[in-house]
């Protein structure tokens, strides 16, 4: 066999390996969710018929002595924890152990615990991410004595914001965005009377001019503000990029280092200490949940295109691609997916836990259960629509 063929086979096997890893990650997330329902059900003495990861034909199955069935099914689009009498009309005389005959508060806890377990896992994943890799904050790794910022910044400084505006990933306010917003607002045009150096980047001429900037930092555990310098870049002449024309003298970008001395200052993602990771893992997870709600709100108001969404196939593809690139990217995806499952399952969408909780709340308020046939019909239609939707968004992702 030729070496090129061997390399091709190796590449295919590697891709298959990452796809399998992605499917395992997704199934693990589903397992956590269903384990939440199962744990709450066992604690509250519900009778459980089957605990399944995935839908469709059974791949593996094990039956316990108490009659509970644990199964792995072929389609990794979700899973379920089937409680006894879950789809039957409430009738305490005939089947007192049935799910719909349990007290409303008990059913709400069981339904809520799926998302609750996802969120708990998100907190654990967030801790691992912040401690092992970091995420949002940036740390000064080194400052050479040739740097214009040598007198202002020190190795170990953690950059937390710019001029009072904090780094906030919820609203996409990264350090890069904050510096850009500050410089373009404060110095939109080149100071023609000031000193500047002409530099060439990717064949285009720019005028580089030194500007003042204020960083919010944490140094030796103490928060403070420091005045520093940033190199603002301005177009040296008119040029057009992707149909957009930039006039000579207009701001086009920034840098913390002189383009002729790029090693003078280096930045890296700040890795939280063990204690900091513990303290920040919970608010970090809540921030992600809030960001999810913002995204959902933008989707319904038309501010976010449907092409930004993806179903299970897209999720598997994304996990595989990010895992192939770096394990650090996978560390980012784990809390993101866990929070996503928690938030999404609590939405009042038919066939999801949030809708079932809504039905239970209505029953609790009106002191009378909703006709189970109506609930089943709503759930069945909702499930078909939901499956159709995720299939469509997956297809769109492969078309665009």
Per-chain topology:
Blueprint: H1 3-43, E1 48-63, E2 69-83, H2 104-132, E3 138-143, E4 158-162, E5 165-166, H3 175-186, E6 197-201, E7 204-219, E8 222-235, E9 239-241, E10 244-246, E11 251-255, E12 265-269, H4 274-300, H5 312-325, H6 327-345, H7 353-366, H8 372-399
Antiparallel strand pairs: 1-2, 3-4, 3-12, 4-5, 4-7, 6-7, 7-8, 8-11, 9-10
Helix pairs in contact: 1-2, 1-5, 1-6, 2-4, 2-6, 2-7, 4-6, 5-6
Explain what you see.
There is one protein chain. Helix content is 46%, strand content 24%. The protein folds into two domains: 10-133 and 318-399, no CATH class; 138-270, no CATH class. The strands form three sheets. Strands 3, 4, 5, 6, 7, 8, 11 and 12 form an eight-stranded antiparallel β-sheet that branches. It has 400 residues and is of the alpha+beta class. The protein starts with a helix and ends with a helix. Strand 4 and strand 5 (165-166) form a beta hairpin. It is elongated.
What key phrases describe this protein's structure?
two-stranded antiparallel sheet, 400 residues, eight-stranded antiparallel beta sheet, alpha+beta, 12 strands
Shape: elongated
In angstroms, what separates the terminal alpha carbons?
A: 37 Å
Total number of distinct structural domains: 2
How many beta-strand elements?
Answer: 12
| Largest sheet entry | 8 strands, antiparallel
The SS-based structural class is alpha+beta
SSE succession: HEEHEEEHEEEEEEEHHHHH
Helix content: 40-55%
What share of residues are in beta strands? 15-25%
Return Rg in Å: 27 Å
Number of helices: 8
User: What low-confidence regions span 5 or more consecutive residues with pLDDT below 50?
Assistant: 1-14
User: Average pLDDT value?
Assistant: 82
């Amino acid at each position: 066999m030729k070496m090129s063929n061997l390399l091709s086979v190796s590449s295919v096997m590697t891709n298959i390996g990452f796809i399998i890893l992605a499917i395992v990650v997704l199934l693990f997330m589903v397992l956590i969710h269903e384990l939440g329902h199962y744990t709450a059900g066992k604690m509250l003495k519900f009778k459980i018929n089957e605990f399944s990861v995935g839908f469709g034909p059974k791949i593996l199955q094990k039956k316990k002595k108490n009659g509970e069935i644990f199964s792995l099914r072929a389609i990794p689009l979700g899973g379920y924890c089937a409680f006894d009498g879950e789809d039957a009309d409430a009738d305490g005389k005939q089947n007192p152990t049935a799910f719909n005959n349990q007290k409303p508060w008990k059913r709400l806890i069981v339904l809520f615990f799926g998302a609750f377990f996802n969120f708990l896992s998100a907190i654990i994943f967030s801790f691992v991410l912040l401690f092992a890799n970091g995420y949002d904050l940036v740390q000064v790794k080194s400052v050479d004595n040739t740097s214009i910022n040598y007198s202002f910044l020190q190795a170990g400084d953690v950059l937390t914001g710019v001029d009072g505006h904090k780094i906030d990933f919820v609203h996409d306010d990264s350090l890069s965005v904050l510096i850009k917003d500050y410089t373009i607002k404060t110095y939109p045009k080149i100071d023609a009377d000031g000193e500047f150096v002409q530099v060439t980047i990717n064949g285009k001429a720019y005028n580089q001019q030194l500007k003042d900037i204020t960083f919010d930092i944490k140094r030796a555990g103490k928060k403070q503000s420091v005045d520093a310098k940033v190199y603002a870049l301005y177009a040296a002449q008119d040029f057009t990029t992707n149909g957009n024309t930039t006039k000579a003298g207009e701001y086009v970008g920034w840098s913390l280092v002189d383009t002729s001395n790029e090693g003078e200052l280096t930045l890296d993602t700040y890795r939280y200490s063990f204690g900091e990771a513990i303290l920040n893992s919970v608010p970090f997870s809540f921030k992600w949940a809030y960001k999810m709600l913002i995204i959902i709100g933008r989707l319904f108001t038309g501010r976010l295109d449907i092409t930004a969404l993806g179903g299970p196939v897209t999720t598997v593809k994304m996990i595989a691609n990010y895992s192939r690139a770096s394990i650090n990217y996978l560390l980012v995806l784990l809390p993101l997916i866990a929070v996503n499952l928690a938030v999404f399952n609590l939405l009042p969408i038919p066939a999801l836990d949030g809708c079932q909780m809504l039905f239970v709340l209505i029953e609790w308020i009106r002191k009378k259960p909703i006709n189970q046939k109506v609930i089943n019909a709503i759930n069945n239609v909702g499930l078909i629509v939901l499956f159709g939707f995720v299939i469509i968004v997956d297809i769109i992702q492969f078309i665009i």
